[in-house]
Specification:
heterodimer; A: 117 residues; mainly beta; 47% strand; globular; B: 109 residues; 6-stranded mixed β-sheet; 3-stranded antiparallel β-sheet
Chain lengths: 117, 109
């Protein structure tokens, strides 16, 4: 499978613990996005990278959330001191900067479902 | 604020009936619009995009700038069309997507 992969697929943690999720984009995709999806809602944008540069992080939900893409390949999303409200599906997507129509098509991973007890 | 509205949470139609999933967006410029679909137990995937003007799996969508709408249509629904459909847009095509809340389409045999 050469699609976007995410690990773990499921995570149960206790309130106050730190969690880290990993996303491996499609090879050679230079853009990588993180979204959060809660029940009954569409995906909500969190942050994105062009190669290793984080282009937008103001939408991260609080300073407990941080993301990295140190070598411009895989990315990690960390949530510190988790709260029950952080329970959600965390989605990763990647895209080439340009496709034949010169607009982006984002390819999504399967998501990581987080449950904070 | 940039926003996408999908007014129907659930839409049920009979097989062979026409389908229209509504989408309205809030943006004064010329956005790029998309429909994404998520079938049961599968990941979110692109169904179609405004700029390509394609018909995918019999679905089409027309951008109406006057009504700021991008409704998804199919003349004859099939059972395999049952899924969650999300409308999304990006103001420039070069920024992150803004998604609607989604509409669950259920096609009844």
């Amino acid at each position: 499978d050469t699609g976007v992969s995410q690990d773990p697929r499921h995570k149960i943690t206790k309130r106050g613990q730190n969690v880290t999720f990993r996303c491996d984009p499609i090879s050679e995709h230079n853009r990588l996005y993180w979204y959060r999806q809660t029940l009954g809602q569409g995906p909500e944008f969190l942050t994105y990278f062009q190669n290793e540069a984080q282009l937008e992080k103001s939408r991260l939900l609080s300073d407990r959330f941080s993301a990295e893409r140190p070598k411009g390949s895989f990315s990690t999303l960390e949530i510190q001191r988790t709260e029950q409200g952080d329970s959600a599906m965390y989605l990763c997507a990647s895209s080439p900067t340009l496709d034949r129509f010169q607009w982006e098509t984002q390819y999504f991973g399967p998501g990581t479902r987080l449950l904070v007890l | 604020a940039q926003r996408v509205t999908q007014p129907e949470k659930l839409l049920s139609v009979f097989k062979g009936a026409p389908v229209e999933l509504k989408c309205n967006y809030s943006y004064s410029g010329s956005p790029e619009l998309f429909w994404y679909v998520q079938y049961s137990r599968q990941r979110l995937q692109l169904l179609l995009r405004h700029i390509s003007r394609e018909s995918i799996k019999g679905f089409t969508a027309d951008l109406n700038k006057g009504e700021t709408s991008f409704h998804l249509k199919k003349p004859f629904a099939q059972e395999e069309d049952s899924a969650m459909y999300y409308c999304a847009f990006t103001p420039t095509g070069n920024t992150p997507l803004v998604f609607g809340k989604g509409t669950r389409l259920s096609v009844i045999a």
